[in-house]
Design goal:
Layout (H helix, E strand, L loop, with lengths): L6 E6 L5 E6 L3 E6 L5 E6 L3 E7 L5 E7 L6 E7 L4 E8 L3 E6 L5 E9 L4 E9 L5 E7 L3 E6 L5 E6 L3 E6 L5 E6 L4 E6 L5 E6 L4 E5 L4 E6 L7 E4 L5 E6 L2 E6 L2 H11 L6 H7 L16
Antiparallel strand pairs: 1-2, 2-3, 3-4, 5-6, 6-7, 7-8, 9-10, 10-11, 11-12, 13-14, 14-15, 15-16, 17-18, 18-19, 19-20, 21-22, 22-23
Length: 290
């Protein structure tokens, strides 16, 4: 599958039937994955930066920017006939886009450059009407914007260390957190129970979406290059350089992992040190007591 220009973004459609590539020359090409046949080509002014598919592969969203005037453009294509059905222009480059699971909303992250600093903006608009639901600025460039799998939440992370979450029903901000380092990525677990925010430093913060409390902090050795959740959402994977690590998130999984590594249960004194205030019990029933 040859594009003919430098490819800036590449992704599979949700059902895996297609693969789309965004080129530096403003063209997005789509191929069928079965035999690699070309299905469609759509074009933009400027340089394509990112792609996103809508639900059931009904929509393709393409975003571009122009280096000459720092303008951005988002176009939406229905995939039945590969024709454009909506578009929105921006006064700044668009770097990230996301489509709600029901295909109703498009969220974009754009960057604003001045003489001395860069900032960012998250914009959410309705595909059918073009009506704006959210337009919020950040003190740093917005690095990631993503809907939860059930469409209930929208989350965004910024270089200024901000993590912000909106309720996608009312579009009210429901969570706001400040990280010590820039937030480079935000990822929901497949079941929507967890949200991970990856920092440019060496940590990943994990948030429980039920009450938006931080429940864990993973600190792999070295800079964290990527983070993902397992299919059941019970484990998180981090990649740091050449090291990949798996982190259990459920208490039962942590206990099971501990019991696989121990040779005996804790003593009374050890229990009081590590689990103060809880009645003593043999945590690993298959292991001998102290």
């Amino acid at each position: 599958m040859a594009h003919g220009a430098d490819v800036r973004s590449l992704l599979f459609s949700p059902e895996g039937r297609w693969v789309a590539a965004a080129g530096q020359d403003g063209r997005a090409q789509v191929w069928g994955t079965a035999v690699g046949q070309s299905l469609a080509e759509v074009a933009h002014e400027g340089e394509l930066s990112v792609l996103a598919f809508g639900p059931q592969e009904r929509l393709l969203v393409t975003a571009s920017f122009s280096e000459d005037d720092d303008q951005g453009l988002v176009r939406i294509w229905e995939t039945a006939r590969w024709r454009q059905v909506a578009q929105r222009s921006y006064d700044e480059p668009v770097r990230e886009v996301a489509v709600s699971p029901d295909g109703r909303w498009v969220a974009s992250a754009s960057s604003l450059a001045s003489a001395n600093a860069k900032s960012g903006r998250v914009t959410v608009w309705e595909v059918e009407s073009g009506e704006t639901a959210v337009e919020e600025g950040f003190a740093g460039v917005v690095t990631s914007v993503v809907f939860s799998p059930d469409g209930r939440w929208l989350a965004a992370g910024s270089e200024d260390g901000t993590l912000q979450v909106w309720d996608a029903g009312s579009w009210e901000a429901v969570a706001l957190a400040a990280h010590a380092d820039a937030v480079s990525d935000v990822v929901f677990s497949p079941d929507g129970a967890w949200l991970a925010s990856r920092c440019w430093g060496d940590a990943v913060e994990v948030w429980e979406t039920a009450g938006w409390q931080r429940v864990a902090r993973a600190e792999p050795p070295g800079r964290v290059d990527d983070v993902a959740f397992g299919p059941d959402g019970r484990r998180m994977l981090t990649v740091s350089g050449s090291r990949a690590q798996v982190w259990p998130l459920e208490v039962e999984d942590l206990v099971d992992e501990a019991c696989r590594r121990l040779t005996r249960n804790l003593t009374q004194e050890e229990w009081m040190t590590h689990v103060p205030g809880e009645p003593y019990r043999a945590t690993c029933p298959d292991l001998p007591g102290p």
